[in-house]
User: Fold this.
Amino acid sequence: GNSVTQMEGPVTLSEEAFLTINCTYTATGYPSLFWYVQYPGEGLQLLLKATKADDKGSNKGFEATYRKETTSFHLEKGSVQVSDSAVYFCALSVLTGNQFYFGTGTSLTVIP
Amino acid sequence: DADVTQTPRNRITKTGKRIMLECSQTKGHDRMYWYRQDPGLGLRLIYYSFDVKDINKGEISDGYSVSRQAQAKFSLSLESAIPNQTALYFCATSVSGGTDTQYFGPGTRLTVL
Assistant:
């Protein structure tokens, strides 16, 4: 079947620290992979995506590389800011039915 | 104006009441989805619709029903609300075909007492 496992939180970092949130997946077929971000009181917003192996998605200083050999899509940022405090969701989508499968979310708090 | 809107944003109701949550979109997308979000469980799919005449059950459809009144409108109903349906509910849309991005509304926080 299809599923996503992501690093449990909460994660607390100091401003300018390096961030990694791990995400691994299981999928039938060839999925597209996504990171969504949810700021307090808001809906989910697409942060970045990658549609095939070895693609790197990037946005707002965040990056993630689609690693087929390790079935992973880890999210990284070199220097986090207070404004990055949010919940981050890893997700995959398979062609059949365009259904999304979400991880459980990782809460990030960045302190000044 | 937001592309995907949900009403109401917050609702408190009592066990046994019928509740309808509404979703409207101006993105012109064919596909619409309803999810619920619970702490520690992420988002789970309730129902999805690929067009007005195509409605499908998701992972957790029991206790819910939906109506696709038009391409732009997709409503979720709880016929007889129960406390374990207390959650944050999100509507989402996407274009047809492929594995493209889903776009989310701001959510409806529902509390069933």
About this structure: The mean pLDDT of chain B is 92. Residues 65 and 99 of chain B are 25 Å apart (CA to CA). The two ends of chain B are 33 Å apart (CA to CA).
